[in-house]
Every structure is written in C-alpha cells, then in structure tokens.
Design goal:
Three copies of one chain form a homotrimer. Chain A is an alpha+beta fold. Chain A has one domain: Sandwich (Jelly Rolls), CATH 2.60.120.460. Helices cover about 20% and strands about 40% of the residues of chain A. In chain A, strands 1, 2, 3, 5, 7, 8 and 10 form a seven-stranded antiparallel sheet that branches. The first copy, chain A, has a three-stranded antiparallel sheet with strand order 4-9-6, sandwiched between helices. In chain A, strand 7 and strand 8 form a beta hairpin. Chain A starts with 5 loop residues before the first strand and ends with a strand. Chains B and C meet through strand 6, helix 2 and strand 7 of B and strand 5, helix 3 and strand 10 of C.
Amino acid sequence: MQGEDVERQRPTHAHELERDWMHTSIEVRTRGRGMHEVTSDVRAAVRSSGVREGLCVVFLRHTSASLVVQENADPSARRDLERFFDRLAPDGDPVYEHDAEGPDDMPAHIRAAVTRTSETFIVTGGDLLLGTWQGVFLFEHRHAPHRRRLDLRVIAEA
Amino acid sequence: MQGEDVERQRPTHAHELERDWMHTSIEVRTRGRGMHEVTSDVRAAVRSSGVREGLCVVFLRHTSASLVVQENADPSARRDLERFFDRLAPDGDPVYEHDAEGPDDMPAHIRAAVTRTSETFIVTGGDLLLGTWQGVFLFEHRHAPHRRRLDLRVIAEA
Amino acid sequence: MQGEDVERQRPTHAHELERDWMHTSIEVRTRGRGMHEVTSDVRAAVRSSGVREGLCVVFLRHTSASLVVQENADPSARRDLERFFDRLAPDGDPVYEHDAEGPDDMPAHIRAAVTRTSETFIVTGGDLLLGTWQGVFLFEHRHAPHRRRLDLRVIAEA
C-alpha cells in the first residue's frame, strides 16, 4: 500500500566477533498532514539486520513531523487523533509569531514537541517487539507533501 | 502496597565474556484509570540483572496505557495530572468516531500519544539513575482494570 | 552565549578491547521558564567520548523541567512553544491541588509529562545525528532560575 512511497537506503552492516549493528534510513514521501504507518518498513529493516537480541532506535531528523506508536487496527483512531491535534494546535492561531512557512508552520512544531522525535524498541528473536495492536507511525504535520527521513540504528547485545 | 498487583516474569540472562543483558517483563494489574508506580519493580529488575553500567529500556505493549516519569513524593501531583488529562481529552467527546470500546476508548489513545510508549534509563553502579523525586509510572487510561505488560531490557556496556 | 551557564562534569571513560562508553553530566543554570539550547554541549560531549558509532542517551533528573528537540533557527518558534504551553497548562489554575511550591508548580509537572525525560540520539562518524534545523533544548518550566542536571551516556557499538 505504502510501498511506493517508501525508499530504503542500502544499510551499513558491521559484523564483528561478538557484536553486530546496522544503520539504515527510510525515506517516506508523505501526502500531507496525517499518520503514515511505517511498521512493516521498520520491521523489515530489523529482520534484514540479522540482529537477534538488541535494541532498535528510530530517530526522525525533522521538527515538523514526528513519531507515534498507536493503534493500527482501526483507521478511525488515526482520524480522531488528527482531529484532536487540529483542536489542540489549530492552524493560523493568532497567538503564533512564527508563521514564515504558513499557518501550519508553528502547529507542526507544537505537535512534534508533544509527540516524539525518537523511539526505542526492543528487538527479540530477530524481530521488533510490539503489542498486537501497536503500529509505528510517521506523523506528518504539514499540509504539503514532504520527503521525510527516518534513521534506524539496530544494535545487538549478543 | 502495589506488590500484590505486580507479577514478574522469570528473566532471561545472557552472561557472555564481556557482555551482559537481561530481558524480563512485569505484569501490572491496574485498578482502572490512574497512575500506578512501578519504580521499585523496575529498580528490582535492574539490580537482579547484575548489570553495573548500561541502559534500561522500558517498553509498553499497549496503546491505551502509557509511561510517565513524574514526581513521586506528593500524591496530589498525580491527581492533578489525571485532572489535566481529563480536561485535555474528555471521555465521550462528540468529536470522536472511534468509540467501539466505550467513551474512554479514544481518550486513552490520545493520552498515550502525548505521553510515552518507551523510556530509556541510564544504569550506573548497578542501579537505575533517577532524580530524588522521580518515579516511573504506568499510566492506565481505561476505566476498567486491565492487565498490562511492561517489557524491560537491560544492556551492559562493560 | 550560554557557555557561562553550563558546567561539564569530568567524564568517566571506559576503553576496553572492543567497547567504549562514557558517562558525563552537564549542569545548566536556567534563568527561569523557557527553552535553553544545549545542542553544542551534548555535541561536545559526544565528540570528546571518542565513540564513532553508537547511541547517546540524554536523561534529565527532574520533574519540573524536560527535554525537547525543536527548530533552532528562529527564536520565534521557541517563544510560540512557550505561549502554547502557557495556554495548555496555565499557572494558578484553580483545578490544581498541588501548589506547595507556587502557582507554577503543577504546570511544570504537566509540561514535563507531555514532553520528555529522556531522549535517545544516534551517534555516527563521531558526532550526533541531527537534522539541519534540529536543536536539543532543556525546557525549564519554573519561573525561578534553577540548576538542572543532564546525564549523558554515550555507548559505542564497535
């Protein structure tokens, strides 16, 4: 579904005596404001790393998009979350000074501040540890489509 | 106090030449909406890991509960935080579409989105590094009691 | 600019056969409520660690200050973020019970709950991986100046 919007960087592997790590990045082309699920992309990167037990850090290099781990079964939960943020930090609020890039400029920074820039996951049995209904989402806060880069670092414990 | 509500999984240890890690999980039986302190449970897991210097990642496999690190001296701070979230994301808000599990279904996802799914702690001297007044809390967002699972991964640096 | 307000602790290094880690702390003397950029301090610590590839965990031992990664080019974005939080959690709100330390006591805990206590960064090429416009900020939530301690743990993968 989102495959065509996601580009994977050729990963860097480091296999040493007892350790293992991988760095890769995923480029997501967003279609404007909203949540873009990247669970399968993060999962694929972890599997391809060959790391069995360890950690996976996802870091987003942007200040007008962010990360959230959310319910991924029912799309209505995503729509409601977007409505919540529309009300929490409305576009064009007269209180904002910072609007050089438009009425959705400052709301984007606010949404990013109250969600996340990095998320740390546990890797076990060669896969991402997630609850049954948990999905990893890139949350685009600008109305215009953007190219966003997610950096993934997988480190092994053993 | 909360001892009877918390179950610890038998941890998996991996002692190798120079490294060490432990995975364990803690099951918390919540009594409904509110903050449940798990500091002593996380601390006990870190101590039992034998790891002296490293990191401890706590990951919550749920989307209607979350993690917060908060003031643990005065229970009134917890009550106020709950009141804040009651106002921020009220139950039964007519703006929500997603209410299959009741009027506290979507507010639970919103509260989780603006708090945390994972938290990374520093381990030093065999113990969790925390400020004097900091406690680790599982924040239950549903009114009904739930069984919640916290996954803990302790990794050693040396 | 902020150099005089920041004190660095003598770091602890551990160079072993294949691993490397460093722990240090940065003391920031805040001038009251607002965002204090610590990007160059965190960056300097990472560089001095000698770690080329790894992770850097920043942990804040306080419950009335927090961490945010935000736009660092335009100071108006910081001012707007402060205005947003002033409205989200106003001082002296009659709903608060917890006001032993004044009308900014509970708002400080709320702001900390919806931003971050720890942040995990990727270290690559001996430096912190950050987007062009990303800065790391200590967010002071109390009006009075405070001494705040940031703990930094840099771990190497190889």
